[in-house]
Amino acid sequence: MGRLRNPILVLLCMALAACSSGPVRRVSEPAASIQQLTVRADGNWSVELRINNFSSIPMRFDAIALHMNLGSAQAGTLQGSAGISVGPESADVVTLTHAPTSAARIAMADALSANRSIAYELKGTLDATPEQGSPRTYPIERNSSLSPVPGLPGVMR
């Protein structure tokens, strides 16, 4: 019985020690993607950028600088300040106004008139600060596509 008591006591102490350490604070790279792009009457775009926080703690997102390609056309750089806090393992949306290049406007108009999808690429950086941490710049790369929304002219998702 004495031999059995020591290993059980050791396992019990290890289990108690594991419980006392608290939650793990994991900071992971965020992601960004276009949730919706709306062509406005003035020719500019309203871009709803979805920011994903994969960290186990809240993150504050600030500066956004993402170079955008639409199809084979360079569309310029999405720039702005998110100015939002996103909870752990959550996402939120920031709306940015974008003045696209003429080549990107033509590519978007062509996709909308033909009622077809168009590929997009985002490359750049996103500044974020973990809760009780120091600011950091994260690289962002995203390749995906946008499709016309039925019944909403000029809107791609």
TrEMBL record:
<protein>
    <recommendedName>
        <fullName>Late embryogenesis abundant protein</fullName>
    </recommendedName>
</protein>
<keyword id="KW-0732">Signal</keyword>
<feature type="signal peptide">
    <location>
        <begin position="1"/>
        <end position="26"/>
    </location>
</feature>
<feature type="region of interest" description="Disordered">
    <location>
        <begin position="125"/>
        <end position="157"/>
    </location>
</feature>
